Amino acid sequence: MLNGTHYRLILQVIAFIGAVILTGCVSVPDSIKGTTKNPVENLLDVKKMPDLYIGHEGRFGGKVLSVLNEKGRTRLEISTLPLASDAVPLIDNSSLGRLYAYVNSFLEPSDFQDHYVTVVGFITGLEKGKIGDSPYDYVLMNVNGFKLWNEVQRISLAPSTGNIWGYYGNPYFMGWGGSTPILPSHMKDFD
User: pTM above the 0.90 mark?
Assistant: First the structure.
């Protein structure tokens, strides 16, 4: 006869197998795969030695701070964040710096302002600008693909032990009893 400990062990094994299967399914969406095998994703390296990266393909993501429509193109000012293996911005991290991403079409500002995006395209250099009254060098790129992300909340029932991540650090484990804290936000396709 199975007791509570056995049920917990069985559920933990099922949760672990499910997490492994989901991890194996992670891939970069086609719209932001780019044309090279490994686009540059480290904005700090580009800022340190911009001449070395001009003409290289880059993939960056983060929060859109401003949208400026110009004749024939739109400039997105992005506060960049590290990217997950599927190119989703990791929103619980600190900004790596700012980027001007130029898209060769009109983009509706309300669709992008304060949303998260990942862009891919060719790095074209640096542009001097300002953040408030402080001078700032923005990395520039011409975008040939982008992905707008939808922010969703992830909720988990925690065990009564107070560990909000459940057993073994699994955020998807639905524990027994306890409260229902809201965990950090996660990104999801708009599709």
Answer: no
